[in-house]
Write a structure and sequence with these properties.
By secondary structure, this protein is an alpha+beta fold. Helix content is 46%, strand content 17%.
Amino acid sequence: MIEEPLSLPGDQKARSSEQDEQLLQCQRLLQDEAQQVLDDLTLIEVLSAAGVVKQTGSSTLGLMVWRDVDLQVSSPGLEIAQAFTLLHPLLTHPRVKQVRYLHQSDHFKLNGLDERYFFMVFYEPEDQPEWKLDISFWLGEGIHPEPVQEAIVQQLTPETRLTILRIKEAWYQLPAYRSEVYSTDIYDAVLQHGVRSLSEFDDYLRARGKPPRPQPS
């Protein structure tokens, strides 16, 4: 786990620099792996039959700390049966371990989200950890997260990228991550509120009624 950045001289500063370089190198490797998974599944080509496809999230922002890819499809008028037919080849792919479906349209629509069909694909490469691919077929016009994605791209700097990676590295295996605390919280804290350390992110969460990191006993 990455420690909070400290303004210390000597060996500790060197170790912090090494940890940062490891984070950046790991991020680059994960991006390469993500592309290999997409290529193996020919997933962009498969999804393009339903509409315009856009890869979003950390795999395109250069903010990866775990194996997850987000894919958005603008597919107005798509029927759920068509979505299942489209994804059928994944069910027989030798590396696809599981496919889950969540109906998030009509009376199952989530508050704050447009209607969509949402699939989670679990892909297990040979001799590598499992990947999760989140696929959203948006039933309205456009792609829901696109404006947020573009805003993040425009605001990222080398400093904020490293800060986000440090915080995500410390958080992504904690139980509250992706259930109460999300990557969007980290992006907002760093890019909009000037958070630069784990302790500052804890303060950010407390101020919004969210759980900070558990303290060691």
